[in-house]
Specification:
alpha/beta; Rossmann fold; 7-stranded mixed beta sheet; 5-stranded mixed beta sheet; 46% helix; binds nicotinamide-adenine-dinucleotide
């Protein structure tokens, strides 16, 4: 079934991500007594494009793929958000993700509106050449809305720096000159930024350190557990260890490893490079992904999938702090449990905003054609993440609400203010 706005209204799509995003918006709007006109305005994406992408496959047959790009709000700046290639991409998923990007950019105060895009395809079944043809035709179909001053895509699920390079090249070929600022997450050789690869994890660890300070946790005595050992998770584990934490368990899609005395994360990274998984790492016991979440620790970092912490397992979770490196790992039912237990959750729109923040730095560097050192990037990132944490924390304290609601109050307040001062055109 295709999920449409109509089916949402008819209540036929209970677990639809766009329904969830709209419910969240309603809750925050009610909590903060948002102007009903602004609330109504923000329920709808500003624009959405559906394109057909005809592609010649390597076997000579033609296949037409569906692609989407949604701009949720451009009130605070050009559209920013990733492009995902996945068989389950749907227009409603892209709409929800675009709305979440609006909030994420607003929480960290970077001058962007929210966007997202996707192509319904299975990259695991496509050759590199087929992926290139899909990407170039998709870019060409979207060209009217793309551009450094209009819409700047980035990598997301199953898209990477190579795909960003093809987008940049296709856009540039159409313009007749190189336009590096049209995408972020590019290779450094064509205008990518130092520090972008580590940015999500680094930003997450900066806010964890701030939360530790508030809670009186000494990082050198702290225990950390990380689910997911990809870009966000493996780098977060390494950085936490550098801060002095003992990382007792990590996992990937094949399973987890646990050593209460601590794992040597550099060695786990090497091991995973060789074997493709953390499972079987010498000197550690194996543990399931479910049990790993319930280990006692000072900080639990879900860095893999959405909806892994639910109303069912939340009562058994012993972490003192949860930092959402992944998008949407905690369900609203679990949030209620943590609120009652006084467990602080650093929400995704704050905890993983380091990625989009360094994307913003990449865009700024591309536009000014002047590049910064990794040290400069990291120090600017730290400034933004610690400032954002402090702002969210002070709302949480003042209004006696969890950090997630506080982050949404901050974000929605900023977007509402921009809409109000700009006024409704015409
Ligand atoms: P990735 O593909 O590099 O890594 C994902 C990891 O999760 C892999 O180690 C994989 O084995 C593991 N995994 C998959 N299924 C699992 C399962 N069932 N149980 C446990 N582990 C499982 O992806 P990533 O870029 O690290 O992204 C992870 C999360 O962080 C996603 O939710 C993503 O949206 C979010 N995020 C990433 C960035 C970024 O810049 N990379 C930015 C913002 C948010």
């Amino acid at each position: 079934m295709t999920i449409t706005t109509e089916s949402l209204k008819a209540g036929t799509a209970q677990l639809n991500p766009y329904t969830m995003a709209l419910q969240q918006l309603d809750e925050v709007a009610n909590h903060m007594h948002l102007d009903p006109n602004i609330h109504e305005y923000l329920k709808y994406p500003k624009r959405e494009i559906t394109v057909s992408i005809p592609v010649l496959l390597d076997n000579g047959s033609l296949k037409v793929f569906q692609g989407y790009r949604v701009h949720h709000s451009l009130a605070r700046g050009p559209a920013k958000g990733g492009i995902r290639y996945h068989p389950n991409v749907s227009l409603d998923e892209v709409r929800a993700l675009a709305m979440w990007m609006t909030w994420k950019c607003a929480v960290v105060g970077i001058p962007y509106g929210g966007a997202k895009g996707g192509v319904v395809c299975n990259p695991k079944e496509l050759s590199l050449k087929e992926l290139e043809r899909i990407t170039r035709r998709f870019t060409s179909e979207l060209i009217v809305i793309l551009g450094p001053e209009k819409d700047i895509p980035a990598p997301d699920v199953y898209t990477d720096s190579q795909i960003m390079a093809w987008i940049m090249d296709t856009y540039s070929m159409n313009k007749g000159y190189s336009v590096p600022g049209v995408v972020t997450g590019k290779p450094i050789s064509i205008g990518g930024s130092e520090g972008r690869n580590e940015a999500t994890a680094r930003g997450c660890v900066y806010v964890i350190m701030e939360a530790f300070q508030k809670k009186g946790v000494d990082p050198s005595k702290a225990v950390a557990v990380v689910q997911g050992f990809g870009n966000a998770g493996s780098i977060a584990a390494q950085l936490l260890q550098k801060e002095g934490c003992t990382v007792t368990a990590v996992s990937d899609s094949k399973g987890g490893i646990h050593n209460p005395k601590g794992l040597d994360i550099e060695k786990v990274v090497e091991y995973k490079k060789k074997t493709g998984t953390v499972v079987g790492f010498p000197g550690a016991d194996s543990i399931s992904n479910e049990d790993l979440l319930e280990l006692p620790c000072d900080v639990l970092v879900p860095a893999a999938l959405e909806n892994v912490i639910t109303g069912k397992n939340a009562p058994r979770i012993k972490a003192k702090l949860i930092a959402e490196a992944a998008n949407g790992p905690t369900t609203p039912e679990a949030d209620k449990v943590f609120k009652d237990k006084g467990i602080m959750v650093l929400p995704d729109i704050l905890a993983n905003a380091g990625g989009v923040t360094v994307s913003y730095f990449e865009w700024v560097q591309d536009i000014q054609a002047f590049f910064w050192s990794e040290g400069e990037i990291n120090s600017k990132l730290k400034q933004i993440m610690t400032r954002s944490f402090a702002q969210v924390y002070s709302i949480a304290e003042r209004e006696k609400v969890p950090m997630r609601l506080a982050a949404y109050v901050l974000a929605l307040g900023r977007v509402a203010e921009a809409l109000t001062v700009r006024g409704i055109y015409p």
